[in-house]
Design goal:
The chain is an alpha/beta fold. It has a domain of 92 residues. 32% of the residues lie in helices and 25% in strands. It contains five helices and seven strands. The strands form three sheets. It has a three-stranded antiparallel β-sheet with strand order 5-1-7. Strands 2-6 form a two-stranded parallel ribbon. Strands 3-4 form a two-stranded parallel sheet. The longest helix is centred in the last third of the chain and has 16 residues. The protein is elongated, with a radius of gyration of 17 Å.
């Protein structure tokens, strides 16, 4: 990362949100999946969705996970959501265990000129503390 000072912030799992209601892979393939807009096809979530969607178009394409959670709660389709978001969203039920392939590490990166600035350090530490407080136990 060159001259930047990275600080590991958190590893987050993505799942389907809510309470655990496991369904078979065959059933998952028949559900109306929600996807990101085409400009976000490179996201790891969209690459993972190619298998359960079996080349079908998404039921709706949305810009972010907040919109996906709202659309899923409204009955538009099924969304892959970060667990910390889906588990707290009213009206959603988890359809699978956490999806190991969608784990992601997040980093807070600070430019070296700012790495010793107390205000910048305080914000970086706060980001790390907040994100770690979102960690949920495995499903």
């Amino acid at each position: 990362m060159g001259d930047l000072f990275p600080q590991h912030t958190q590893r987050w799992q993505e799942g389907n949100g809510g309470h655990v209601v496991l369904v078979s892979e065959a059933d998952l393939a028949t559900l109306p999946w929600l996807g990101f807009v085409e400009e976000q096809e490179h996201y790891v979530t969209m690459r993972w969705l190619r298998a359960p969607m079996r080349d079908r178009a998404p039921a709706a394409r949305l810009m972010n996970t907040d919109l996906m959670a709202a659309a899923a709660a409204a009955g538009v389709g099924v969304a892959v959501l970060p667990c910390f978001l889906g588990d707290e969203a009213a009206g959603l039920s988890r359809l699978s265990a956490q999806i190991e392939a969608l784990q992601a590490d997040y980093w807070t990166v600070i430019h070296p000129d700012l790495s010793r600035n107390p205000s910048v350090r305080a914000v970086a530490d706060w980001i790390t503390t907040c994100s770690r407080s979102l960690e949920l136990p495995a499903a």
